[in-house]
Amino acid sequence: VQVVESGGGLVQAGGSLRLSCEVSGEIDSIWSMAWHRLAPGKQRELVAAINKDSSTTEYSDPVKGRFTISRDNTKNTMYLEMNSLKVEDTAVYFCSVASLYWMAVSGKARYWGEGTQVTVSA
Q1: Which pLDDT score is estimated for 29?
Q2: Cβ atoms of residues 48 and 67 within 8 Å
Q3: How far apart are the first and last CA of the chain?
């Protein structure tokens, strides 16, 4: 299974970015997925998670109301729409794929991408 993130980059505060996460390989079932981020000097934290059929989503408090997670199972792709970006959103964003929702949320997913850098300038 391969997990590949894309869409990161440099943006000014107040701007927007859309991250994508494409999953390929021998996936025999639809999985729960999540975005986590790792900023310099900080621990990795959950950004958002989504279950298999998109009926359940959750967001960390710092991004609620600004970020939107979604997925297209026909394309094996998950998205993270990030609006009103702040300097403190600067981090490497990782996509993860887990067989159970709680595993995706807790960071115990089996499959992870290599991350995409998001840098927000003042």
Answers
A1: 66
A2: yes
A3: 37
Can you list the alpha helix ranges (DSSP code H) found in 6-115? 101-106
Which of 86-121 are b and which e, b meaning 16 or more Cβ less than 10 Å from the residue's Cβ? eeebbbbbbbbbbeebebbbebebebbbebbebebe
- What number of helices (H) and strands (E) belong to the chain? 1, 11
Strand partners, 78: 21, 71
Is 62:78 a contact under the CB 8 Å cutoff? no
Q: Which amino acid is at 45?
A: E
* 79 pLDDT higher than 90: yes
Q: Which two tokens stand for residue 84?
A: 């009103």
